[in-house]
Amino acid sequence: MAFPRNLILAFALMASLMVSADFIQTRIFFSVDLYFANATIIDVTVSSDPLYAGATTDVFVTLGNGGSISANVSVNVSIFNSTGGFIQNISFSPSIVAPLSAITLSSSWATGSNPAGAYYANASGLYEDGINSTNIFSRQFQITAAPTATPTPGAPAGGGGGSSNPNPAIDENVTIRPTVIPDGLRPVSTQVQFIRSTPLKEMFAGTTAFESLSVKNTAGGTKSLTVNITGVPSSWVSYTPIKTIMLPSEDRAINLAFTIPQNALPGDYLVRIDAREDSEVATDYIALRIKAATRGAQFPVVLKTIRLDRPLGATKVTIDVINPSTKAIAYLRVIDEIIPELRASRDDIVFADKPAEVSGDPLQVKWLFRELAPLERASVSYSIYKLLQEYRPYVYWSVKQVEVSPKEIKLSDIVVIREIFSTLISEGGEGEVFAKVFYAGFEPVNFKATLEIPTGFETQPLTLEGVLVPRGTTDLKFKVRAPPGSDGTHSATISVLLDDEFLISQTGYVTVQRAIALSWQYILGAIIITIIFLLSLFHYLGKKKEKGEREAHITLREGYIKQIKRHIEK
């Protein structure tokens, strides 16, 4: 027997009544988030051209990230000679490259005693905790022998206080060449001591700079001193005093003015300062590092000066950051890594002006510069209350790294509200509004989120606070109650304040459904349908029972007739 039509109809009517009642329906969104970093080395540049033997140059590496999340990349540049012989590694500190952006890193490299010839700078990087590697980018460059010239008899030697040229007939500008600073270099003391020194002074060719050293008379009587300076052409330096008389325990400054010509050969020059009385000579040294003029260059450059204050027991560091280009630099980070020989701690460091972040092991000092104007020069200084007697560690203590970005990557650039959605809400009823916030950075970020919705709606909480998940998605959820008479679609704006500084917003929509009241007509209809359903069910069961009894009676009757037939046949 087929299932009765009226029973099916009754069931369908009950279901339609339930669906039309005040039920909240949820719209479901499916999304696939692909989070990946794709770091690539775009270029490697060796700045000096030509690069003379003995000179110091800057090596630039440009990194790009074509992925959807930030990449923390550690770059290494290996220097090889033309036969494949390994020369040196230049290791950069890890740098964060934001999605779809590029940065340029630079670090100094001293050619030292490497001979003239062809060399290769091979750059590669690791990211994702060393799991992924970048491409390998190779750049060939040349180290060129410094040009030589035949001294011209009778040529002028230049001037300045205290001429260091014993033979004015020979031009020192063509005979004094860059040199490799020897090991074991330190001041020599007599009863006269150098108490303030400058072991390293970096300058550009074509510029002028001033330095001041100090000597102290530790003897019980007066000293009559003659000062003499050698190691650079006499036209490059002038100084005062040339002769001086010092009383017992007196300090005296020796002031130097360096004027480096535009055509000076880049490299290291060992400037020697002698303070002599008869056969007693107190000696100090300055490693004068000349860099090629950079005006009009694309990338920023740095100069470093290291001074020693022995009465204070302090090493004083000054770093000059120069933008040689005709364009402003939006974002620049300078990293100076303190040499391990100083064995310094954070407590030993004091900043003279612009403070910096101090972290890491070995200790690194990090400054951030914003909007460095064309041709602008910015200086930072700090002191380490430790010092060394030997100068060589100071001489080769270059700035660790300079990081340049064409734009400053702000939190608002790497945080985005990807979508806003809500449940369907009935008038006077409650629902929920959701948002997905994607953050591409590395460090956790505090946030405060609010939901702006038309007047009359109630939201909980008023402010949602938390921490964004680094390199991933954070879900936000607000409960919303709709007022009566608010059926329709309404705008809803979620605003997220990042680290109490950067604000991002996104607008979505909330749908409110008109409520269908269960009046007496609906209740009466439900009762009638229920009665019809029950009567139909009882009728169906009764018919089924009656049919079963009839079939059993027919079966019994047929069996009885068969027995009678078998009896007659016998």
What does this molecule look like?
- It contains four helices and 35 strands.
- With about 575 residues, the chain is mainly beta.
- It has four domains: about 1-20 and about 520-570; about 40-145, Sandwich (Immunoglobulin-like), CATH 2.60.40.10; about 170-325 and about 370-390, Immunoglobulins (Immunoglobulin-like); about 410-515, Immunoglobulins (Immunoglobulin-like), CATH 2.60.40.10.
- The strands form five sheets. Strands 11, 12, 13, 14, 15, 16, 17, 18, 19, 20, 22 and 25 form a twelve-stranded mixed beta sheet that branches.
- The protein starts with a helix and ends with a helix.
- The relative contact order is 0.12.
- Residues about 15-30 and about 150-170 have low confidence and may be disordered.
Key descriptive features of the protein:
twelve-stranded mixed sheet; 4 helices; Immunoglobulin-like; elongated; mainly beta; 570 residues; seven-stranded antiparallel sheet; 47% strand; 35 strands
